Each structure stands twice: as structure tokens, then as C-alpha cells.
């Protein structure tokens, strides 16, 4: 996950990232799409937006003037700014996406942003980087690279989805996840964690490994 040079970063208006991984993603991205109110946070980190989208209700006057040629106005009230950023990426054919700055602050915003990963997983390749780990939506069975001892949580958006695993400290043997806590707080015991399921999608959280 260290090479972000072909990725489009969506910089959202949550808490400004501090961890090295999301900061590296912003630094080396092919382009940065900024949700409108997040522009000043991005600039404070020393980066510039390539495009800014949203209804411009929370952008500062100075940023609005400075980046007026980069603004893609979207006044739709039936979707949030992160959704608008996803739609803008799809319009331009940018399908490898890393979301940064979408967590922290109000918990309802964080939950909404996480759910969007699942909404768009069948249209784009996307991960969300927080200051504690990476969220990966899965539309089909997959093997994830991990390290022994790495913390992992799995959330299902399909209560009829039977989930099987290998490489976890607490194996999942056909469990159907009806509550988000049921497959959370697990741990990798191998360099690959295999998740087999039909249905879904799933949302997987892998905590960063402290070295």
C-alpha cells in the first residue's frame, strides 16, 4: 500500500490526518479531489487540490477565490460531498481511489462515510485510510495481506451472508453477521487472511502495524 502514484485521493472534511500512511497517500497521489470544506485543511498540510466539489457551503472565501478555476459545483441536496466526489471520479474514469480525512469528528459523519465504501465498491477500487488503519470493502471472496498479530475487524452489510475464514485467531466458520460487533476485534495469525463468502459486501478494517 506504499505506492499511491496511480491513485486518486479524495480528501474529505473529517479530522485532518496525522499518520504517515494517509499523509503519504496525499503526497504521492496522481491527483487530489477535495470535498469543499476540507480545502483549508489540505492546504494546511502543504498540498493543493486538483479539483474541489460540493455545494460550496463550507469552503472559505479565500479558498473559493484562490481555487475558483478548480471548483466543480454540485448543488444536489440528496447526496453528501463525499458521494459527489465519488461521482466526479467516475465521470473522469478514475477508478482507483483512496479516501483520506473521512473519519474523526462527528460519529454520524464517519459512519455515513464508511457506508459509502460499500455503496461504490462495485464501481471502483477503493480503500479508506484513517489514522489507525485501513478500511477495505470487499465485493467478493479475497485474500488480504496481513502480519501475524495485526488487528482485524469484519463488518457485513448482508445478514444472510455466511462468512468463512482462514488465517484468523478466531476462525469464522459460516457465521452470519447480524450485528457489527460479531466479527470485530479479531487478529491475524498468518501473512494472509482469506475471507470466503457469497453475498455481501463486507467491510474489513486492518489496523496499522506498529513497528
Attribute tags:
211 residues, alpha/beta, Rossmann fold, ten-stranded mixed beta sheet, four-stranded antiparallel beta sheet, elongated
End-to-end gap: 16 Å
Q: What is the name of the CATH topology of the largest domain?
A: Rossmann fold
**Strands of the largest sheet, in order across it?**
4-3-2-1-5-6-7-14-9-12
Q: What percentage of residues falls in helices of 4 or more residues?
A: 10-25%
Low-confidence stretches: none
Number of helices: 5
CATH architecture of the largest domain: 3-Layer(aba) Sandwich
Q: Give the helix/strand class.
A: alpha/beta
What is the mean pLDDT? 93
Shape: elongated
Number of domains: 2
Q: What is the N-to-C order of secondary-structure elements (H for helix, E for strand)?
A: EHEHEHEHEHEEEEEEEEE
Would you spell out the secondary-structure blueprint of this structure?
Blueprint: E1 8-11, H1 20-28, E2 31-35, H2 39-44, E3 51-54, H3 61-66, E4 71-73, H4 81-92, E5 96-100, H5 107-120, E6 125-129, E7 133-138, E8 142-145, E9 151-156, E10 162-166, E11 173-176, E12 186-187, E13 192-197, E14 202-207
Parallel strand pairs: 1-2, 1-5, 2-3, 3-4, 5-6
Antiparallel strand pairs: 6-7, 7-14, 8-13, 9-12, 9-14, 10-11, 10-13
Overall description:
The chain is an alpha/beta fold and 211 residues long. It has helices spanning 20-28, 39-44, 61-66, 81-92, 107-120, and strands at 8-11, 31-35, 51-54, 71-73, 96-100, 125-129, 133-138, 142-145, 151-156, 162-166, 173-176, 186-187, 192-197, 202-207. The chain has two domains: 8-131, Thiamin pyrophosphokinase, catalytic domain (Rossmann fold, 3-Layer(aba) Sandwich); 138-207. The chain is built from five helices and 14 strands. It has a ten-stranded mixed sheet, sandwiched between helices. Helix 2 (39-44) links the parallel strand 2 and strand 3. It is elongated and about 55 Å long. 37% of the residues are buried.
Amino acid at each position: 500500500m506504499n505506492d499511491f502514484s496511480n491513485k486518486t485521493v479524495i480528501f474529505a472534511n473529517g479530522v485532518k490526518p496525522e499518520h504517515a500512511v494517509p499523509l503519504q497517500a496525499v503526497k504521492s497521489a496522481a491527483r487530489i479531489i477535495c470535498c469543499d470544506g476540507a480545502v483549508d485543511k489540505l492546504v494546511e498540510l502543504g498540498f493543493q487540490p486538483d479539483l474541489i466539489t460540493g455545494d460550496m457551503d463550507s469552503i472559505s472565501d479565500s479558498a473559493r477565490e484562490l481555487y475558483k478555476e478548480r471548483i466543480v459545483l454540485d448543488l444536489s441536496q440528496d447526496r453528501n460531498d463525499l458521494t459527489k466526489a465519488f461521482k466526479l471520479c467516475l465521470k473522469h474514469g478514475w477508478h482507483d481511489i483512496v479516501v483520506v480525512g473521512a473519519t474523526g469528528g462527528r460519529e454520524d459523519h464517519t459512519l455515513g462515510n464508511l457506508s459509502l465504501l460499500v455503496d461504490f465498491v462495485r464501481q471502483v477500487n477503493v480503500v479508506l485510510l484513517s489514522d489507525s488503519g485501513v478500511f477495505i470493502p470487499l465485493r467478493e471472496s479475497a485474500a488480504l495481506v496481513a502480519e501475524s498479530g495485526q488487528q482485524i475487524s469484519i463488518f457485513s452489510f448482508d445478514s444472510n451472508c455466511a462468512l468463512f475464514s482462514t488465517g484468523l485467531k478466531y476462525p469464522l466458520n459460516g457465521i452470519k453477521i447480524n450485528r457489527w460487533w460479531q466479527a470485530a476485534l479479531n487478529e491475524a495469525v498468518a501473512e494472509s487472511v482469506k475471507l470466503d463468502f457469497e453475498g455481501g459486501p463486507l467491510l474489513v478494517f486492518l489496523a496499522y502495524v506498529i513497528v
